[in-house]
Amino acid sequence: MAATVQLAYAPGAMAADPVKIGLALPLSGAAATYGQELQRGAEYAADLVNQRGGILGGRKIELVFEDEKGTPQGGVAAVQKLMSVGRVKAITGGTNSSVVLAESSVTKKRILQVNAGAQADAITDQGSPWLFQINNTVSLNSESFNAYIVKTLKPKTVAYMGENSEFNKTVLEKLKASLQSAGIELVSISTYDAETNDFTSILTKIKASNPDMIYVADAYPARAAQLWKQVRQLGGFKIEVMSPGVVTPGMIKPSEGAMNGVITGEIFMASDPGAEGKEFVENYQKKFNSSPGKGELVIFEAVNLIAAAMDKAGTDSDYDKISKVIRENAWPSPRGLLKFDEKGRARAPYFYIQRVENGAVVQVERVSSN
After folding, report:
1. Which residues are registered as beta bridge partners of 28?
2. Taking every annotated instance into account, which residue ranges of this chain make up the domain Leucine-binding protein (predicted)?
3. Helices 32-51 and 294-313: crossing angle, nearest 10°?
4. Residues 6+ away with beta carbon under 8 Å from 27
5. Distance (Å, rounded) from C-alpha 291 to C-alpha 339?
6. Which of 65, 118, 192, 259 could be a cystine partner for 94, CB 3.0 to 4.6 Å?
7. Is 114 exposed, middle or buried (0-12, 13-18, 19+ CB in 10 A)?
8. Is 9 a residue whose pLDDT tops 90?
9. What are the residues facing 190 on neighbouring strands?
10. Strand pairing report for 263-266 and 350-357
């Protein structure tokens, strides 16, 4: 049975040498809004760890940031620099699955990596013993979201469109299975490459099939905002849904109202954080004068997990020992206790069905994920 672990902060003066944690984030490019959210959440977590005395006998946590630019090539360059120049003891960050998959080819068997936000199952299907995942996988999110589609929305026909990526490959696979089991027809499948910004021809083709519902899967905020604007220009659809785990204020705001009515899902909502998350939300709101989203939450949990696991293991570089400690314990977080399975995956205790209204997501219902 997993033991519950609290951060063990030693009293006394801070040691001179900090423990460096590297963060590869999209600080520029189409996913930059995700990077900004994660940077803020990571700095908040590190500040709290340091205020409470640091780890490993009083050593401070020092965050080292590199811009992975939202591309696989950028991700590889970022983690290589963090390891060779930054001399970091662990890697975290992660918002887009293709980027984290590329990074993991560099970090495997070399350094502890805690993927905070990317969802693709393939990331942790690799079986790397030093690689962990905080956010739900695509499969876990699809399990809850697709159940809502087939049992509550009950469309007779569905059209799908999304980027041709590892993330969306699994989204489509799970959607197909759910619709087939419910006897719902998937009338159209359209994919596009990362450089696409004009979706008119795809949407016109989908319109011709007259589906009850359109399912859009796109994890890049700027591009998705443009896509939904073009949906509105063509008159929209009866039911509109967006793949879960990707809709943030940084996607909704630039859509300029085009996403109103879109249904999506997420593992966290600041308006309904649960007993364990109330203090996190309130303190975050006081500090930043805004509410935290899923991005701020998962990176907050990732930085705290790395710090607490190193502290309990008594080392910042024996990754076999640190990873064993992570798997064998339960870790306090704003969502309750996080436990990691044999593949290094955590599972959110709740899943929230959401709808975009007046430029913000509102809760439709909360379902248990266990």
Report:
1. none
2. 18-359
3. 40
4. 35, 36, 39, 65, 67, 68, 69
5. 25
6. 118
7. buried
8. no
9. 161
10. antiparallel
What is the rounded distance in angstroms from the CA atom of residue 64 to the CA atom of residue 266?
A: 28
Radius of gyration of the chain (CA): 20
Q: What is the pLDDT of residue 12?
A: 41
Q: What confidence tens digit (pLDDT) does each residue in 198-220 have? A: 999 999 999 999 999 999 999 89
Q: And the tokens for 344?
A: 């290094």
**Per-residue confidence (pLDDT) for residue 370, from 0 to 100:** 60
CA pair distance 197, 8, nearest whole angstrom: 49
Quick check: helix, strand or coil at residue 160? strand
Q: pLDDT tens across 261-299, in order? A: 999 999 999 999 888 899 999 999 999 999 999 999 999
Widest CA span in the chain? 70
Distance, CA of 255 to CA of 333 (rounded, Å): 32
Q: Which domains does the chain have, with CATH numbers?
A: 3-136+272-339 (3.40.50.2300), 139-266+352-368 (3.40.50.2300)
How does residue 66 score in pLDDT terms, banded at 50, 70 and 90? very high
With residue 180 as reference, give the H or E element that holds it.
Answer: helix 166-181
> What is the length of the chain?
370
Q: Which H/E stretch holds residue 332?
A: strand 329-333
Residue 29 DSSP label: S
Cβ count near 32 (within 10 Å):
20
Q: Which residue, 233, 261, 259, 232, is CA-closest to 248?
A: 259
- Distances in whole angstroms, Cα of residue 34 to Cα of each of 59, 213, 250, 295: 29, 27, 7, 7
The two three-digit tokens of residue 292, written as one number = 């935290």
Token pair 């811009």 is found at 67
Contact 265, 141 (CB under 8 A): yes
